[in-house]
Amino acid sequence: MSSNLPKVAWIGLGIMGSPMSENLIKAGYDVTGYTLEQDKIDRLVAAGGTGASSIAEAVRDADVVITMVPASPQVEAIAYGPDGILENARRGALLVDMSSITPQTSVDLAENAAEKGIRVLDAPVSGGEAGAIEAVLSIMVGGEQADFDSAKPLLEALGKTIVLCGPHGSGQTVKAANQLIVAVNIQACAEAVVFLEKSGVDLAAALDVLGGGLASSTVLARKKDNFLKRDFAPGFRIDLHHKDMGIVTDAARNVGAALPVGGVVAQLVASLRAQGDGGLDHSALLRSVERLSGSQV
Fold first, then answer.
1. Catalytic site residues?
2. What is the pLDDT of residue 1?
3. How far apart are CA 17 and CA 24, in angstroms?
4. How far is it, in rounded angstroms, from Cα 243 to Cα 260?
5. Single pTM value for the model
6. Which of 173, 240, 245, 263 is most exposed by smallest CB count within 10 Å?
7. For residues 94 and 65, what is the distance between their CA atoms, to the nearest angstrom?
8. Cβ atoms 67, 73 nearer than 8 A
């Protein structure tokens, strides 16, 4: 291990956290990980990392603590309290929260951490499981310029587009906008798929030609096979996109921004979840369009 690289603690080794932490190990970082499932810790150890039996143990000697958990309640659970990050990380450590949470949670975390001498960046990501594995994530960051500058080499081992968007909470605000665009885009693709199929067109051919024109998008390229094969194994679960649509609609209401189409898509995501599809990939928005169009799903 290269001794001049910061020591990293990684909390949260799920669909995104596992491949991301492994990319840091490949880049030469000393990574100690903790998560709730022992098999995920074992996977990190097999990749060359170190397992920890608690958050406190993981963060004690870390220069940088990275968190990647599902939502605001989990961030608060791992950050606060006697067993949490703020009580156990050392003064001067940098906490990089890569979860997608409410902007206000990020602002509050930064304020509370500052009292302990811990610096914070909110750094949510876009690109899904494939982007995590390939280390080509888009990373939107909120916080101080100096902290961003010190974290950038590490973030470059995880993603390709890494941008400081403003003060604490700004990364989360941009992530919320990202999730709005992605959900509306998937919904539009899903409607097109049902329209094309009901019209008797060769779907694969149609999606190929659409992918070469103005209708092309990363969403269409990444999700084309999901649509063609009706393969909704989760890269990004409907449950999580439901959470994110709640974040963006709430944050938009707070600032006085109208999201008429976003509001409709938020309801479609919620209905999909209510019908038991919350564990499927967000490309399963296709299922709700099929149901509305009279298909047995």
1. 175
2. 46
3. 11
4. 18
5. 0.93
6. 263
7. 6
8. no
